């Protein structure tokens, strides 16, 4: 495989030329990535030349509507789905909440069940658990308290009686970071007659998903973590989306991408999301990756992952070799996202503050992953130190981080 051209990659991000942001090695990507230049330029152009009600019969409105349509069409092409299956919302938490209200009406009073995990960020856990208020049985797929892993055999047992209609789980946790086998899990659920909702927020920054290959019914992620603006993106397959009760204005329910958008969308940010597709295409062109949009996306995904696996391995080896910290999740970089959480056995916030003074941008806390950290025996008052990389992270950044950690720890 061609190696990722890191100089070219960084030239696509204004942050690396910023006198404010470029002073630190950036390891807070799981909280939000840098936006790529194409997104910044599209957002600026929209607010400068198109910030009117879109689709109206005059030039600025027509241009704005066309750019919104372009974003949906191109992202759909990248992920291998129909344009109508891509919905935008203010955040993934909001999109998940709206989806849960639809499921509430879909399942209430039928004596059926759903499955949630304790490995998830709270956004893909709490809203589903509250469906128990309607008499919907909520079954928990529990992680292994030592490793943080989810065992598919445990899910099979939860599905055995045929009552489960929905399985909600993460592509990977924002603290455990182990890559769950989404394709196998979705196949297992489908065999049992259940739909699947995948929280992809912590995975999508490492490569946009190939939805047909995954086989899920819903995939959710956040554009502000995939080099874009602050929008939530939800892919919902048509068969499931039209089966669920609509949550928008009744006269919009015939349009799938409006069906779960009860509030007016942010026109400028939707239009700017086309910049993420611009960036993927720029990487594909630079590295000689051809084919249709889905093929280009798959090739860029693999480039990103190869870079991340190579770059983060020394940090994992360094932390695993220490006997005074607990590395959360797998040591093997190929089995995880490059989001590295560490239980220090003491308050993590002061350590992140000291690292900040040494030119390392990262943070500490529970990261809304209260359930997985509690299940793994982490003291929430102390929290974890989390250091998260993406494909634009260089080997020199990781070396700088390790040197700083060695001094602080």
Automatic annotation (TrEMBL):
Sorted UniProt keywords: Aminotransferase, Pyridoxal phosphate, Transferase
Superkingdom of source: Bacteria
Cited Gene3D superfamilies: Aspartate Aminotransferase, domain 1 (3.90.1150.10), Type I PLP-dependent aspartate aminotransferase-like (Major domain) (3.40.640.10)
GO molecular function annotation: transaminase activity
Domain Aminotransferase class V per the UniProt entry, residue ranges: 26-401
Signal peptide start and end residues: none
UniProt name for this protein: Aminotransferase class V-fold PLP-dependent enzyme
UniProt organism field: Paragemmobacter kunshanensis
Lineage of the organism: Bacteria, Pseudomonadati, Pseudomonadota, Alphaproteobacteria, Rhodobacterales
